[in-house]
## 1
Amino acid sequence: AAGMFLRLLSDIQWRAAHPKWRRMTRSQRSTSTTAEPHPVSLPAQAQVVICGGGIMGTSVAYHLSKMGFKDIVLLEQGRLAAGTTRFCAGIVSTARPVSIELKMAHYSNKLYQQLEQETGVQTGYMKTGSISLAQTQDRLISLKRIASSLNVMGIPCEIISPKKVLQLHPLINIHDLVGAMYVPEDALVSSANVSLALATAASRNGVQIHERTSVSHVTIQKGRVTGVETDRGRIQCEYFVNCAGQWAYELGHSGEEPIHIPVHACEHFYLLTHPLQEPLSSSLPTIVDPDGRIYIRNWQGGILSGGFEKNPKPLFTEGRNQLEIQNLQEDWDHFGPLLSALLRRMPGLEALQIMQLVNCPESFTPDMRCIMGESPTARGYFVLAGMNSAGISYGGGAGKYLAEWIVNGYPSENVWPLDLKRFGTLQSSRTFLRHRVMEVMPLMYDLKVPRWDFQTGRQLRTSPLYDRLDAQGARWMEKHGFERVKYFVPPGSDLLDLDHSKTFYKPDWFDIVGSEVKCCKEAVCVIDMSSFTKFEISSTGDQALESLQYLFSNDLDVPVGHVVHTGMLNEKGGYENDCSIARLSKRSFFMISPTDQQVHCWAWLKNRLPDDSNLVLEDVTWKYTALNLIGPRAVDVLSELSYAPMTAEHFPSLFCKEMSVGYANGIRVMSITHTGEPGFVLYIPIEYALHVYNEVMNMGQKYGIRNAGYYALRSLRIEKFFAFWGQDLDAFTTPMECGREFQVKLDKGMEFLGQEVLLEQKQNGVYKRFTMFILEDHDTDMDLWPWWGEPIFRNGRYVGKTTSSAYSYTLERHVCLGFVHHFDEKTGEKLVVTTDFINQGEYEIDIAGQRFQAKAKLYPFSSLFTQRRRKDEVELSGYQRE
Amino acid sequence: FYLTPAQVNSILKANEYSFKVPEFDGKNVSSVLGFDSNQLPANAPIEDRRSAATCLQTRGMLLGVFDGHAGCACAQAVSERLFYYIAVSLLPHETLLEIENAVENGRALLPILQWHKHPNDYFSKEASKLYFNSLRTYWQELIDLNSGETTDVREALINAFKRLDNDISLEAQVGDPNSFLNYLVLRVAFSGSTACVAHVDGVDLHVANTGDSRAMLGVQEEDGSWSAVNLSYDHNAQNEHEVERVKMEHPRSEEKSLVKQDRLLGLLMPFRAFGDVKFKWSIDLQKRVVESGPDQLNDNEYTKFIPPNYHTPPYLTAEPEVIHHKLRPQDKFLVLATDGLWETMHRQDVARIVGEYLTGVHHQQPIAVGGYKVTLGQMHGLLTERRARISSVFEDQNAATHLIRHAVGNNEFGTVDHERLSKMLSLPEELARMYRDDITIIVVQFNSHVIGAYQNEE
């Protein structure tokens, strides 16, 4: 075994250039565990300390040092590139469904390609290409979707026939294939050597690398990283980067204040063989057979093949020492089904001799996306971990983004889908992680259809009405651990059928959601929206108003009882959050934001509100149950229950009042619905939740009330062109780019965060524009449904991607929302997007390679707003979220 | 006439059921990993019944097997009703009040039991209202009796058994205006059933037994071998204490006629049972009920027939004997089975067969390639063969099925003989009962880690 690993680590020349390491690493890089003296003592302080000498740690060090940071120390408890990185299969693949991950992989590929030339270290880089096989039509659709997004990024990629597969790779049995995706520029590397090359370059740029140094914990004072305690002494530092891979969770929990990093390891097996009689060419493309759950690459004339089995074996749940990674057992019985799949795919390999079955643990995250970013509780504490076995593909790009984050305050791309702050402490339970990763690992190769939900780790956070709604046929999805209703299955419907609504085409809940939407338009519906993040900000004097006026873009100095839709912008004018704020009194505000903002928004405000004991920020999410009453009859239900007139004259739009509903007092009623329909949201202290719900349902009966879920809400808001944060809006989108100038206090002469950028955009125009598309020649029953991430073409040229879509039951058309750019035809440079530019184009939306004509609109259909209350107060482009 | 292995399997597996306690159900970690159950009919229709449920308002799990005689009506009724009686007996006063209030006010009831049922295990819809009313009367009395003391499991089990039998008897005496129900309650009362019920809560295992079904604990010794510990006594003529008890309860003059041909009054095999009012009611009462009953009852020779030497009823009781056992880490499983199993297999063999079945998969040596020259094809063949071996030795996914396979198909060497199995299973209905009895088995598997942890706490 040792011999094999030595070959993987073939290149050792790099050490010669670095005398100060030579002494430490002179002896054989074997599994010898005898302690060697540490010739170089640790510095007493550094600007950045990176923990972990795998691909992530070395990539962060490489990029930080390139960006001009000099005072960097990298600590590795064992040897460089000796953990998961050492065992990694070395496949650099850009075929990723999440666009930010795709960008990272694309960058990694380009970086590795020139790394050998840059550093002189052999990386084994070989551009072999990769072929992803489809055994079913559904799989082919999912490949076509990926192919569409690769193509518009300029990454060569084509859908090919089984016959073409055989031409590219003569060993493949193609009789059960329906097609494949070929990405010719995908590559193979020796991941350990890539890591060593990055370390070499970093070291030349002044990064100090210390092996055999373990971090025991990180010290944090007043919410800031102050230093690192190691087994060789303490280093004071400003920034700490946790790149400890599978041990990131333990390391996060080792300090007094735990940093929650939800990763968990599973055993991962791959097979190495001796060379074929006629050794395989090293340029043969890598094969991914997701329906067979395996990947196959050429390896030293033989093959390397592994996979993601249905029944993964999670390990290290209790936390273990890294040394055990060396001693994991081969488990042939467990590998059996994957071996069968391999021999079915390449029957000619039967006579090939086995070299070894490698057991190499990989770490997985609760949502299959990697984790990067700054801790919400400790400034300067950065994390890059949980690569879901794509570490080598992401390594370069992820390291670059994290380095940018440290140096510039934020990466050059929107990385919210990967941000550590999308998780809270609740995802940090060991039991949760163990169960969830057992679902996540097989999911790597499962078919991912629109709107799938995780099955494990559910029913964690629920509304007090959960059981009541469940008994009425609610079907659930989960956001940030909170159970939310998708739709209600009417009694008598075929339940079994509905549980199998996994399709790229029209789903079987179509009519159910349609009837909920209809009820919202014609009568009244109740949607439990308790999951939203709710904060209260109050002060003894004017501090609350003053601070919020700076942090939020809309004018909050409104009369008490008014509700304001406003963005929480960053320095670049981009949306960090999008929320509704009600002024409860002169000195207190009630803030509603999307469910997954609970950690991010809290950290953002905490870090920016003045340190003043008279200014209080409180998370009251758990204190209130929110019921959204949508529809023209909501006003009747509520006025009957409260004996108070609720008509527009008495209760105008965007208004907030505490009132009684039924017997319960102190219910915060707001005249917003997040859909553009008339109605109210009731914020109910949780102990009254059941009472108020019962009262509303009883009273509502005569008005035709019924329960509804988020799918109905989604359809309603999208047809009205409401953007929501986390899907349409992100930290790189400004109010000016999505038609929300009216929600910005540019003309009030008040200073606020992001102001300069907005002013500049007002003057010079914007470079992308949020646009609504109505699909014209799309057959709802027969054609593939849009989801999000579909490329948009204007006059045949790519201009952007959709961010969300839904079927509008009113328009009887699909509506897609997305951003339109204006790329210069020759240089590709981004130009200003004008209204004329939008209006004067012919548009097409590409769904899995098939283009559909679309009509672009910059303003919603006014006919959809059934009840105009007061012209200036219509919730036009109010914020929205799911 | 010969059954293929696949046909044999489909017969054996027709009634199998498995339940796995969720690894972590959010409330407490259970000492029970799960259970397998199965039944193989010899009578048509089968007269055995089985039940399993989790108590929702108290902790613990209930499992039971019921062997009916003179029809299946009594066993059916007991299998539906007994666990409710037990659960109610275990409930604290406040919960009883809450439930009563809910019924009074027409609100939704707290769920008391979560049943774990095979689709073939049915509940009588027609009688549910009647049964419910009897149960409600019982809890109302419990509420009135409020002793203020915490409920002892042993006492609760005994009370529940006696009360249900009493209700069965009363319902038959009172009758029902609905003719279908009237006939049903009479059939229940005139047929009989044994009951062997286990209640598991943490390390506390109680077995309440009435009749000749049996509970047996499978224990793994330190050397890995298996032994059996009885957790019930058979109530039949082979049990000296039972014979002694019956004799004590009746005048000396009846001593000779009490037990004849190893049967109670020369008729009944089990010495304790539910129903069987022919052995409980006075002759007057029996005659009155039969005469006023529906014609079907009057035409039935069996019900009209009064046992000979019937002087001092009751001769029969449903009161169970309760054995309490503190579970230890070496206690790996519990087998509850009707006498159909125990007639054909010694308990020691049962312990060994189930023990080896439950642990067998783990005993296979892992494969290591080491320095050998192995090709992918060879390895694939080897793995396929290993899987095939596992599935042939352990082709049963269910321990109870595995046990039935042995019980019916074992040859003189103690291994399953397919030919014998095929013959036994293809016997025509009328012959089957001659060669074997209905067999019903529940195998409960314990979680040794949890039990160990409980022990350490104590």
## 2
Amino acid sequence: CPVGVGCSSVEKKIYVHLNYTLPCVRLLNATHQIGCQSHLSGNVGVLHVLESEENLDWVLRSGLNPPYLVILDSPLFTRSIMMKLKNGSSRVAGVAVVAPSTNPPDGVSPHTNCPNENTGVYTEKYDPALAHCNVTVWNPLGSGLSYEEFDFPIFSLKDDNDTKVIRQCYMDHNRAVNGSAPQHPLCAMQLLSHMSAVTDTATCMRRSDLSAFSLSLDTVCDPLADFNVWASTRPLNNTAKGHKEGESVVVAAARLDSRSFFFDVAPGAESSVSGFVALLAAAHALRSVTQEAPPPRNILYAFFQGETFDYIGSSRMVYDMEKKHFVVDLDNIHSLLEIGQVCLLSSSPLPPSSFQRFLRARPIPGVVIQDHQSSFTNRFYESMYDNAGYLDISYPPDLTPEQQLQFVTDTATALTEVATVVARSLYAQAGGDQARLSSINADPQMVTQMLYGFLVRSNNSWFQQLVPSNLMSFLADRPTNLYVGVLNQHSELTMLVQHLLANLTGTTVNITQENCNYQREDEQDKANKHMFFYVWVQGAAPPNATEREGFCTRSTVRLTSALSPAFDLQEYTSKDYSTWTESRWKSISGRIFLVAGHELEMLTLGVGLGVLITSLLLTYAMSAKADILFSSGREPVNATY
Amino acid sequence: MGIKNPFIDGEVLSFTSPPFSPCDSLCAPPLLRAFFWLVSLLLASLVWFISVQISNKDSAAQQKGLLIFGVVLSVLLQETFRFAYYKLLKKANEGLLTLSQEETMPISIRQLAYVSGLGFGFMSGAFSVVNILADSVGPGTIGIHGDSQHYFLSSAFMTMAIILLHMFWGVIFFDGCERQRWWAVAAVVVSHLVVSCLTFQNPQYVGSLVPTYVILLAMAAWAFHTAGGSLRNLKLCLTCKDTDFLLANHRPR
């Protein structure tokens, strides 16, 4: 709007749009729907800033202007308060949680107590005594809020100017003064996050399938899916699937994804990043020794996506191996080493891990490396607070982003030691020469740069060098989001891990960009594309130049599908495989405004109707009596016409 | 033949003389007038748009000046088009008169004035208020930035005043043109300018609404007088002595 004249748009006088809104969305599986839902045109509620749990009484019982939209500070975002709000949902229009800028001192985990309890290896049929976390409760701080269903929207707000405006509006208009009711106009908020899918995955997939035949129906949900990233120290022929004679493989596994209560927020620092960064660093440490003194067994690095949601990635890989759609099959696996949560430093059942899915198919020897004896030490498991701050990744003040990237933090040093241990164990497990073990060391510089890239800012100079130019737009000025996302949605995380692994385990080859893109070393080469993956990356700009010098990296990195077998088999009520889907929605927004009192509205309507009726009557009366009323005019009969 | 021919059977009145139905004269003018008003608005906004583009966007004083200029220009254009419309109607009426066999016009210039003023006012009112109505449909009301809550009510009253004023101005204006009383025409233009400029008083709704309503009452009285009304007639109507008066003093209008 033009400066000086002022925005004359009436809408801008009424509404203040919220810029930063993080909703909670609806996810569905074979039996349930979880998450939040709003009405089709949004939920409107009078603002109420909750002061304590006792203050809930105003919202649920005594308040005079329901429905209320409750603003919570994060210490009040607990299970007991949310359950009470859920039960009184006729008077609750929605909830907005103000996220603090620093992590809360006590642990908060919205995940369940026993993650993935139905799709692991401990079921009623196998070791029922260990099923359902009978022996060890892995996530004791888990409130399970992420898996509850709410029929009002729940949004997360940052503690910034918008939130100050909201609080000020509440203070000005909605506070009850000396026990009397607050006067209209009252401050209100509208939150819109209408989800299209309902009931469960089978229902929404059925409705989506129908949309192929009808123009008016839309797809209502999408399966959660992405890609697993894998690479091997000895190249494997990617076109020959199924059992490989003579191949004995040690699988080194790590999980990629994470989640939180709110949509698309998943920093997953301790839950996931610690594990896969350690594995990446171990892979890098093993690069030179596996070229010079290759061990008898192959080492296969596998990074699984979607593990948070009932092991999507690992169940898919096991399924592909069983159906002979993968380069090796289950008989080729010698053992498995998995890295779990390893950043916080303190014979029991296996924690929730991808290894459990392999065990369901075949008894394979294996071990999971983790930093906890029994329950998780992670106090923020699968929560939005599981971020760089929690891992104490702190940089001295006054460092530029470039200097921060290079600075080796204490966390990085500790994680490097873990990576070294992992690398040496893998080499030993693969039957390598014992004498060379001491020469295998992970590089702390590499580890700290990876931690910076994933937990602080993915758009940094190192990551920029490793990716092809067409994928630069995925890099962002914020921590990487580890949420798995839906099918056909390219995730930043998978792309980064793929190219990082290529760079850390592969070699630079001196071929032209065209050959590189065609997956061949020269025009006549037809064989190498089955064994290797070639990618032309941007590289760095040499000093005193602005153009980047790209180069071709050759590695054994591949992507395989991480879509739950339940969707290929169309078994949407499967109990064996993950059936998680995410609902679709049209738009998500929030705004605040004042609502007029009922009296003023009725007055306006009454006045309008009164004026209308009066004017009609007047017009009729005047028209009926027109002869009399307008008769004394000096009417010139024969015109000046 | 058992079928009644409507052109012969005198009982079906609307097909007998006069050959022009009342709708010819009474429906077209407001629509046409509304169209004329739209054209004047289009011209005014075109000029305003161009001048805003070439002006200095950062200077608040210049922008405010430009707004005042825009308003004045719009008023002058509207009045010009009202005059043009008057001329057009006169020409049309003369044409009709020569075509038909009647000696007097089927519709008096006074009725035309009223009806055209109404069309003008209706279009002006619609433009003023439709935007505001559209935004009032949502759940919120004005006030979060500190503006008065009574915005919608005041806009409604202002719009009503403008529509009625246009009607009265139409009557006075046409009568002034008929009788060559240019001071009446000038008074209409001046009062239109005054009322438009009063809206700059907003958000002091009292400051803009009260004078507008005062002017409205004055114009109402003037138009009533111009159209042939008088206090005596009013008293006669109100005390229900009108039927006797009619019988005694019936004259064709």
